[in-house]
Amino acid sequence: MSDFQLTYSTMFAPPRALHERFEAALQTVRAGLGQDHGLFIDGDFVPRTAMLDKYNPARQSELLGRFAQASTADVDLAVAAARRALPEWRRTPWQERVALLRRAARLVDERLYEMAAIVSLEVGKTRMEALGEVAEVSAFCDIYARQMEENGGYDRALPDDPLPDMKSRNRSVMKPYGVWAVVAPFNFPFALAGGPTAAALVTGNTVVLKGSVETPWSGLLLAQCLKDAGLPDGAFNCLVGDGANVGEALIQHEGIGGVTFTGSYEVGMHILRAQVNRRWPRPCIAEMGGKNAAIVTARAKLDVAAQGIVRSAFGMSGQKCSALSRVYVDRSVADALIERLRAAVAKLAVGEPQREASWTGPVATRAAQARHADCRRQLEGGGARIVAEGPLPADAGEGFYCAPLVAEAPLDHPLWRKEMFAPLVMLGRVDGADQAMAEANASDFGLTAGFFGAEDEVGWFLEHIEAGVTYVNRPLGATTGAWPGYQPFGGWKGSGSTGKALASFHYLPQYMREQSQTRIEG
User: Considering only CA atoms, which of 343, 413, 342, 400 is closest in space to residue 367?
Assistant: First the structure.
């Protein structure tokens, strides 16, 4: 396994040893389920009387643990701890911050299988998706550490002023904002907590993380790694609480200097407006929704297109912000594509996600299951029809399982505009590539997009598509599969507030503000 590098592109053919190690870790984790877990504030795991019972979304009878719930008073405690830790941490030479981040990355590597087993149980991800998510945090840490080195800590000498009788030295120095709030989603609770946290810490900020009540365990795993790596007390704090009270108290807190949010468009825009409307504006990095489209032209390789569509639409039961939601296919090949999709969807292995044989599992929440059912009801009219339906496991009633669906519908059906976040993809027939492009770009979102067509059509697609992440003729996933260091990940339009992508060359500077320094010597 030493020469196997796990990414979302390589996860489809892992070595045997990977499965064996996951099985052993899963057995260890399951032996310790049901324990109480606290919040993480000022370097300690602290208990609270308000607790949440968290159950396995694939097996609702299995209690994973009881997790402390934060109050607005805990927000004050966490921000105060982060503010106390800030002066020492921002004075720490950037080289030492880089070294600590790399120690944390190696701890993530060492604990990969145990933490992936927990993520799998908590979110309902298959073992490969969970392993990929945890490994992604290690990759984030390494990339951001390397970028700090490559940019010399973002401290640069500038030309001296052209003065004949004195030395006027100029520098550009990037400095941290202060306490950085990270609000992580339920679908990637480890990676989308760990990535922004790594960026904030390596640039000299301290962090208060708020995790989702649906996935309370992952942030605590991150806290343990950072603590064991030697991060000073208070430099990272982890809360779990509801968005309306705890989340709102955090993003409105006068003690924070910036926010990274991953979640819905509505909440993201609310947080963005809140930061702009302060006494002075705070930066807000908001990664929001997606209604991702794929175009299939008359000259596409349909077997490749079908494979890419199925993997992107139904991987993790459609709960990725990058999941494929819309397919626009040239009507001359639509029937042939539907036949291939019908065959591929029928073969999907839907089941308990911890099993090796399962390709996808349940949705993570009861609300998502209800949303899928509501979307299915909407497909009963308006000229829509379900053209492909995947299987459900025999024990589907024990968890939040939803049948994978491909639905053909007129292009004015309301589900073309709704962000479903469930295993359902819409398919529409178009009269050529220009109509497909117009429909793809008609969305308020612009996160990811896919294309299946001839080589001489690729340039046209890349020139005209309005999306931050694009994939061409990719059987591994029509719109999904970005990995740190290979594909920067960020959206256009309503999918992102900054136009800068995670793990890109341009991401880290968002966590710092520039100071111009001029000194007269002698």
Answer: 400
DSSP assignment, residue 231? P
0.70 exceeded by pTM: yes
- DSSP codes, 215-257: S-SHHHHHHHHHHHHTPPTTSEEEEE--IIIIIHHHHT-TT--
Report the run of H or E that residue 126 belongs to, with start and end.
none
**Predicted confidence pLDDT, tens digits, the chain (522 residues):** 556 888 887 888 889 999 999 999 999 999 999 999 999 999 999 999 999 999 999 999 999 999 999 999 999 999 999 999 999 999 999 999 999 999 999 999 999 999 999 999 999 999 999 999 999 999 999 999 999 999 999 999 999 999 988 899 999 999 999 999 999 999 999 999 999 999 999 999 999 999 999 999 999 999 999 999 999 999 999 999 999 999 999 999 999 999 999 999 999 999 999 999 999 999 999 999 999 999 999 999 999 999 999 999 999 999 999 999 999 999 999 999 999 999 999 999 999 999 999 999 999 999 999 999 999 999 998 899 999 999 999 999 999 999 999 999 999 999 999 999 999 999 999 999 999 999 999 999 999 999 999 999 999 999 999 999 999 999 999 999 999 999 999 999 999 999 999 999 999 999 999 999 999 987
CA distance 213 to 221: 15
Residues 6+ apart with CB under 8 A from 154: 148, 173, 174, 203, 508, 509, 512
Q: What are phi and psi of 136, to 5 degrees?
A: -65, -35
Q: Which two tokens stand for residue 355?
A: 């099993």
- Choose among 317, 296, 288, 314: nearest CA to 436: 296
User: By C-alpha distance, which of 300, 250, 325, 262 is closest to 479?
Assistant: 325
Instruction: Tell how far CA 230 is from the center of its chain.
Output: 26
Contact 208, 193 (CB under 8 A): no
- Separation CA 96–CA 91 (nearest Å): 10
Residue 180 contacts residue 256 (beta carbons within 8 Å): yes
Can you state the angle between helices 191-202 and 127-150, rounded to 10 degrees? 10
Dig out the tokens for 237 from the structure. 């704090």
Task: Provide the b/e sequence for 194-206 (b: ≥16 CB within 10 Å).
Answer: bbbbbbbbbbbbb
Q: Which of 333, 329, 416 is nearest to 375 (CA)?
A: 416
Annotated catalytic residues are 287, 321
Distance (Å, whole) CA 494 – CA 286: 10
